[in-house]
Amino acid sequence: MSVPPADQADACSSSIAASPILRGCSPADYLQPFRSPCSAESPQFTGMGAFCRHASLDSNSIRTLDDYAFAVIQAMHESKRRKAEEFSKLPQDILISVIMPTKNRGAVIGSAIQSVLVQTYSNWELIVVNDGGDNEVEGILAAFADERIRYVCLPETGGAGQARNKGNSLCSGDYVAYLDDDDQWDPDFLLIALNELRSKGRRFAYSAQIVWRGFDESTCLGVGFIHLVFSPFNRSSLENSNYISMIACMHERSLFSDVAGFDTGLKRGIDWDFFIRLTEVTEPLAIPCILSHYFSERAQTFVSMRGSYRLMAHNIYTLQRSRASWLESLEDDSPARKVTVFGLSERQISWRADNYPLEICPKAAVFILSYGSVKHARRCIESMRKHTPGLSLLYVLHACADEAESAAFAALEKEYPGVRTLSCGASFADAHGPAFWDVVLQSAKGCDAAIMALDEAIVSPRWLEELAYVLQRFPDAGMAVSRKVLPAYSLLIQCLAPRLNANFEADLALHSSVIEEPDVEHEGYYALQRTPLFCAMFPITVLRELRDSGQHVPLDSSEFSAVVRAVTRKKIYYTPFSKVYCIKR
């Protein structure tokens, strides 16, 4: 028998006292029943810095509630408490629109509404969009008798994308947040998300989230803890798999029209596609506070349409490629296999050019390091000539003992006017002392920067401009590093990066052991402790210091970057906006 709407509203009101989430209690307190002993298999975080470095590559890194996890969770709560105390003193003069899609969820929607009503930021409107379901929810909303709640019923079911698009069309607020009808927010969600955006001058933010299994009516918590979801912004990771939750985000309303809303043609991955497009026109702000709670399988009916994961992956990947500034099909070293490579989206390139312009584009010499493959060198040369306007100084440094191969490299000069080839002998292993750098510096005479790239690199539009921008953006940069992208469906993804989804491209440039600082200045850049050389730009002054130091470390060693840091006292910065493919041998 259904519960009368008025009684249900009263029941929801009385549940606040029973719900540690709605009361804003520390998660470290109410997660105690789910505590687990420390395990050698679980990450052992030594603080928030170590957690964020690890979470940059694994957004679900807290799966076991051991002592290390509780230390991170408590630190997140303390940060939340301090922010809430600071922001509570500010005026609540900006209207926030909250959009809640629903369909036949009368049994659970009351607690979701209650978590909006208890928000410490009170200047909001709640737009509940019934996606073609029954009208039970209308009576439930009326029982709350709050003029800030608005209701609209769609004549036919169209899925969460349609419902959210409709909600956005009715918004009056300057900012938009989303809450599903079976989930809950921390009482400080709106207060912290809005004021973090305003104080940092950002347009889009997301926070940490706890994912629960089911819902226990007696404790007002999940039946079980699944994981805590959070990651500092990692552009290439987001393109491989989604780590941002719809109910953990807030954005300027104007952003919605900038990216043309939700794609209603998708059955799954609607939120993922939306976040990829949002981050093509703005840098998101990651807030390391637990501000939302997702209750998996709490309700048996779904607003979002269901479909196969494989089909969703195919659709999302197809959409990414459809927006690309450049797309091409290449052969890898297996003639029977084709791989698809593509650049940043047209929208992102335009936005980057407008918002991150180079004051002066440095004159750079490009050095392609080839280990004896003329085929790879030729493909790399063609890629760079195609996507690097004004490129004039391009050298191929090759290491091969065979005279026929050396002659084939020399023939590249006739095939590609302007290209010069330099022999480094039979091996690069003995070619990186001061004499080697003398050759490089002499070849790059008159240049401000030099680029070192392996011959397996395939560059995309704006690759050089983005590396150059890193040197301009960070005066302490001694080395600017691009993405190292393996094409989708590559067998090497499973071997080299098993944590990543092989249905999508995979970036091999970032590893938790090499990250020094994630999401630098909340702009998507990463400071690295070290990195193997793949495609990087160096100020000429750095190469001079390397020569003068007398250091003798092979370029194909990961220790090379450590030498750069040690000799120059400068940092290594990674940029996800310089997209370079790695077509492995």
Description:
The chain has 585 residues and is an alpha/beta fold. Helices cover 35% and strands 21% of the residues. The chain is built from 20 helices and 24 strands. Strands 1, 2, 3, 4, 5, 6, 7, 8 and 9 form a nine-stranded mixed beta sheet that branches. A nine-stranded mixed beta sheet has the order 14-13-12-15-22-17-23-21-20, with helices on both faces. Strands 10-11 form a two-stranded antiparallel ribbon. Helix 14 (374-387) links the parallel strand 12 and strand 13. Helix 16 runs antiparallel to helix 19 (540-549) and helix 19 crosses helix 20 (559-568). The mean pLDDT is 91.
Structural class: alpha/beta
What is the molecular shape?
Answer: elongated
Oligomer: single chain
Fraction of residues in H or I helices: 25-40%
Task: Tell me the distance between the termini.
Answer: 66 Å
Would you report the number of β strands?
A: 24
Question: How would a textbook summarize the main sheet?
Answer: 9 strands, mixed
Strand content: 15-25%
Integer average pLDDT: 91
Low-pLDDT parts are: none
Number of helices: 20
Provide the gyration radius in Å: 27 Å
